[in-house]
Structures are given as C-alpha cells and as structure tokens.
Design brief:
Number of helices: 14
Structural class: alpha+beta
Low-confidence stretches: none
Mean pLDDT: 97
Shape: globular
Number of strands: 43
Distance between the termini: 57 Å
Helix content: 10-25%
Largest sheet: 8 strands, antiparallel
Radius of gyration: 25 Å
Strand content: 25-35%
Length: 669
C-alpha cells in the first residue's frame, strides 16, 4: 500500500504516491466525530431514516508517527488515523461516539462516479447519496404527480438516490477510488466541490484506496477486489428470454413468438408457484415449491419443462428470501428455526409486503442458508429442470428484529443482498450448475459481485420519464459496471404501471431496441399485465420483438468476447464513453449512450416522439453507421433515429466488422 502521512505545523496530509488523498487542518478539518441519534421507519421496503447527531468534535491538533496519527481536540485524543495493510483506518476514541465524517481532498473540476448501481446520475458531483439498500421508489422525482401520489401512499415515491444496490465506493477522474469497508448506514456527499465527504454511522471507518493511470485499470482493480462473475452461458446470450405469467397458457403464447421467428432461449414464468391478486396488481404466491397452487397454475410442470428442453428452450422461475404466512414453507421454516424473530418474543417477525405478510428467512444462520439453498432452490427448482430464476428482493431487512448471530440489523441490512446472493450461488454449485443455470438480482451491496452472475435494473415505470423510465436502465448498467458488475439487463417493456400509467407501442418498440444491446434480452409483462400492451398483443409488436431478438442472437459471438474480457480484466459489457476515452472531460457525465465493448457505440432513443437525436462519436477514428454503412468522423452529430433504426455505430477496423455489417440485413428483412 503506497500510502504515506506527511505533517507539519499547519496541516496533516495523506498521499497515495504523488496524489494528495486527504488534507486536515484546523481551518479545514478532514475528520469530525459525533454521537448519533437515529430514527428508522420502514413501510414495504421504503425507508425514512433521520439522525440528530450531537456533541460534534473537530480535532485541531495532532501527534504523528510514521503510520499513525492521534487527533486531538482541547488537548485530548478524540480520534486516530492509521495506515493499514489495506488502506486507512479512522477511529473515534471517545466512548459512545458512533458518527464519523471523513473529507477527502478534491481538485477543481474533478469528476466522481460510483455509489453502486445508481439510476438517475452517472456523474455524482453536486449531490449526496445515502448508502442504504431499499425500494428505489415509483417516479423518483419529487416534482412529478406520480411521485407525490406514491409518497402519500406509503413513502413509495423515492428520490434520485434511492436504489436497490448502493455501494460505498467512488472513483474520481484523478483515477483514484475509495471504498468504505463497512455495511453500516453511510453516505457519499459530493455537494462541496472542494471535498469528497463520507459519512459513517460507526465508531470506526476503514477505507481501501486504489489508484491507476486510467479508468480501465481502476475498474479492473475494483473487479478483482469484489470478485468477478463467471462468463454468461451460451443460451443466455444466444436468444431472448420470453417473460410470461399466464399459467399454462404461457406455453401456448410462447408458440406465437416461435411462429413469428423469434430467437427464443428461455421461457420465464415467475408465477410458477401460484399467484394472488392485490390492489398493486397480480402478485406471486410466496411459497416456492411445486405444491397444489403450482400444479393448478402449471399442471405437470416438470414434464412441460422437459418438452421445452427438447426444443432447446430453458425454463426460468422466480424466488425471493421471504415466505408468506399462508404457505407451506413458512410452517416448515418456523418449526426449523429458520426465521428472524421479534425483539420482544420468540415469535417470527412478520413484514407487510402489501396485503400479505411474510417471515424473513434468517441468513445469518448457516443451517438456514443450507436449508433454503437445498430445500427450495436445489430440490424444488434445479432438480425439476428449472434452469434459472429471478432472485428478487433482499432490500427489506427491518432494523427492529432479532438475528440468529446476534448482529445489529442496522449493520446487517446492507449485507442482506450479499448473503442472499451467496445462498443462490451455493445452490447452483451444489448441482454443478455454476456458469450454466443463471439467477439474476436487483438488490446488491459491496461483495455481491462475487456471487451474483447477472444484475437487472429493477422495476422501471412504463414510460420515458427522466428518473424512473427507460433511460435509467443505461445509468444502472454504467454505474454498476464501474464497481465490478460486468453484466446488467432490464425488464424489456418496463414493469411498474400505476395510476393510469400504461405502456405505449412506442415505448415497447424503443425498449426492444435498447434491450438488444445488453448481454441478456428478457421481456416482462409488468405488474398489471391485463392493463398493458404485451409483445404478443398485436402482430406489429410481435414482429418487432422477434426481429430484435434475432439481432440480439446474431451478436452472440461478440458478446462472448465481452464475457471473456469481463472474466480476464473485469471490464463490463456496457461501458461509459470515458472508460475508453479518458482524456476528454466532456464525456465524463454522458449517460444517454454507451459503448458496448470497445467496438460498438449505442445511442438509444429515450425521448417520447423523437425521430432523431444528438450522438457523440468519441476518439479520432471514424465510426460506421450500423444500418446504413455510412462513415462519420468523430464529433457531436444529429442522427436520424426512426423507430427500428436506433443510432448504433461500430469501428470499421473491428475484428467483428463483418458481423456488425450483417446485422443490418436482419433489420431490413
């Protein structure tokens, strides 16, 4: 670790090589400590967290050694700063002090990225980002009527920083990265251009610090730190996953897609275990096994799965780490001691998920992890031919329950998605299915990368809105990719339909265009399928989806190469422009287009009614238009973008230039 402390009578400085990381002085302190007084309110995965810290202490003096510094206030030691093998450790030395603010050095014009998977902003400058996994909210924009309605209905509107997958890691355009190695509540605050502040709700803050000559090396280091995903299986990148939740009728509807010449790799039926109707829409029955409800919804499901396999089509399902109280598995879990408990009794803690209650499977207990992985994921799903599933939720751990290992739920809350990913990964490994069967998650936190093979961007609204619509899919992929997640995708067509907000044909078409250029293309019927258009609702939509599924399948050789790059270097498949063009600060905040690997540039249409858009072509070499073969010099250009022709460009000198040139034939067919 190339860290060193340098001090004189005026300031205390921390360097990583020649880079200044932190500067502490009486007039501009880098460390402040206090006592916290938090209140936490949760309603259906939406949190209101407030704090009233007191007794703030700001060290104004210091005593140094080569690797440790005592920070003093009023002549008394109140905090320490120490260089460790991994980075920097800052401790509050005053009893009961459990809040630390660390202010890292920022240079003028320095850009900042990170924060896990963010949905609204790629560049984080000028904003504060609480690090707490939760429901992202519906609308996520306090100026909109939809967000106001959802806030009034249960704190469910969200804001720009709400995310299923936060992570206390940030990267800067000085090609430094800082990671807080803690799962407690924290916040990244970039509202002051003179500093990068991290707020930590603990008495100790451990920071890992990384540096490189450019962003690709920095991203590679982070992927090594958090763990890399296995390469995606051939079937997942070689065709579209059709999402239907229509019981046995799903198989008949699948035939429509096949008859339309869609390239289909899998049928995904999240309702495999049964359904329940709620005011939110058609919900699943949270009892993950082949019981009476499953048999009524999907008669002879294992046999139907076998028939699909004969056609080269996989069957995917759904699970989450909660069990409804009116299901069979709940009783089994309760008798086996597998559920989180109330603080005031040995009764199971119940969570309201919206007109039904569930127990929380306690993943701090090893026996419980083994039980869920073997009993549910392996025996009920993998052993019956299910080739993958949506591993949903993970954000809902309340802070007022009792965990088997005695840990504080405030610290365990952010770790919950990581534990959930480990249970899923272990189930695949138990059947030798790692790298073959595939689960995908929306929730995450530091370390989920090692076990979660694929992200999806969560529950977007079925619209073009800035903070909750189709565009957030790109931001999610780009931000998550910077902190070690190579693969992301979305619900093609969007998910959340409330208060009269329903899909349009244009949205469905534009989402197909975007989903084609992700490693996995998967449709979803949404939370209210009967109120919304589906891809088999009209011949035109069916033809649209089928056509783009074939383009997606033709890209498989290129995507395989991206998978190899991810495995060897940690680079994500979908990349911000600055990752390959770091010398152009104008690219630092570009989040409405992306590089798909180094050789494809995708600029999806994200505005309703738009038939053209501005596109940035970076670098110095020309780019070739995918559909017309016309070459364009780098710069900012206005490009025609009618439906069916999203602006996509490739490098003429690419090894895959021949493959790209042939894609236009599929669209023209």
């Amino acid at each position: 670790m190339n860290l060193r402390i340098q001090a004189d009578g005026e300031a205390l400085e921390l360097f990583f090589g020649a880079r200044l990381v932190l500067r502490h002085s009486p007039s501009c302190p880098a460390v402040v400590i206090a006592r916290g007084a938090a209140t936490v309110e949760m309603y259906r995965g939406n949190f209101r967290i407030e704090d009233r810290p007191s007794g703030h202490l700001t060290p104004s003096e210091w005593q140094t050694s080569s690797k440790r510094v005592e920070l003093l206030a009023g002549g008394e030691s109140v905090a320490s700063m120490e260089i460790s093998e991994d980075g920097l450790v800052i401790r509050a030395l005053v009893p009961s002090y459990d809040r630390i603010w660390v202010r890292f050095h920022a240079e003028p014009g320095e850009c900042v990225w990170g924060g896990g998977e963010q949905l609204s902003y790629l560049a984080l400058n000028g904003r504060r980002f609480p690090i707490w996994t939760s429901e992202p909210g519906v609308g996520r924009d306090k100026s909109t009527e939809l967000t106001r309605l959802m806030d009034a209905a249960g704190m469910a509107g969200g804001d720009y920083w709400n995310t299923n997958y936060p992570q206390p890691t940030f990267l800067t355009s000085r090609w430094l990265a800082m990671h807080l190695d803690a799962s407690c509540y924290s916040a990244l605050d970039f509202t002051d251009p003179a500093r990068h502040e991290v707020e930590v709700w603990a008495g100790e803050a451990r920071f890992e610090i990384f540096a490189d000559e450019g962003p690709m090396g920095l991203v590679s280091q982070l992927s090594t730190r958090f763990g890399r995903q296995p390469e995606l299986p051939d079937w997942a990148i070689g065709g579209a996953i059709i999402g239907l939740k229509d019981g046995a009728n799903s198989f008949k509807r699948l035939e429509r897609f096949l008859a339309a010449d869609a390239n289909v790799s899998a049928l995904w039926c999240e309702d495999w275990a049964g359904i329940r109707e709620t005011s939110f829409g058609r919900r699943l029955f949270w009892d993950w096994h082949l019981g009476e409800r499953s048999a009524a919804r999907y008669p002879q499901l294992p046999d139907r799965i076998s028939e699909l396999v004969q056609q080269g089509i996989r069957f995917l399902a759904y699970a989450n780490p909660y069990l409804c109280i009116d299901g069979d598995l709940y009783r089994e879990a309760e008798s086996g001691g597998h559920l989180c408990l109330r603080l005031d009794s040995d009764e199971a803690y119940l969570v309201d998920f919206g007109e039904f209650e569930c127990g929380v499977v306690d993943f701090t207990r090893a026996e419980t992890c083994d039980w869920f992985g073997e009993r549910v994921l392996a025996r009920e799903m993998l052993d019956n031919g299910i080739a993958g599933w949506m591993a949903d939720f993970g954000e809902y751990l309340p802070t007022d329950l009792r965990l088997a290992d005695g840990s504080d739920p405030m610290d365990a809350h952010n770790r919950w998605p990581v534990l959930w990913a480990q249970v899923n990964a272990k189930a695949l490994a138990s059947r030798g299915k790692t790298g073959d069967a595939l689960f995908f998650m929306r929730a995450g936190f530091s370390g989920v990368q090692k076990d979660c093979p694929l992200l999806w961007a969560g529950d977007q609204s079925v619209d073009f809105t800035r903070h909750d619509g189709i565009s957030t899919v790109i931001t999610a992929a780009l931000t998550a990719g910077l902190v070690g997640n190579a693969y992301s995708h979305s619900d093609c067509g969007g998910y959340t339909s409330l208060h009269g907000n329903v899909r349009t044909e244009e949205l469905m078409q534009r989402w197909c265009e975007l989903a084609t250029f992700a490693p996995v293309m998967r449709s979803h019927e949404g939370n209210r399928p009967d109120d919304n258009l589906q891809y088999d609702s009209t011949p035109e939509l069916l033809a649209c989806f089928a056509r783009w599924s074939r383009v997606h399948a033709r890209l498989a050789p290129y995507v395989r190469q991206l998978c190899r790059e991810a495995a060897t270097s940690g680079l994500p498949a979908q990349r911000p422009l600055f990752l390959h063009y770091p010398d152009d600060p104008a690219l630092f905040a570009v989040q409405d287009q992306f590089l798909y690997g180094a050789d494809l540039l995708v600029a999806p249409v994200l505005e309703e009614g738009a038939v053209e858009r501005h596109v940035i072509l970076p670098g110095e070499a020309p780019w070739r238009h995918l559909w017309t073969s016309e070459e364009f010099e780098p710069g900012v250009l206005k490009i025609a973008a009618p439906i069916g022709r999203p602006p996509v460009f490739y490098r003429p000198d690419s090894t895959y230039a021949g493959l790209f040139a042939n894609l236009g034939e599929e669209i023209s067919a």
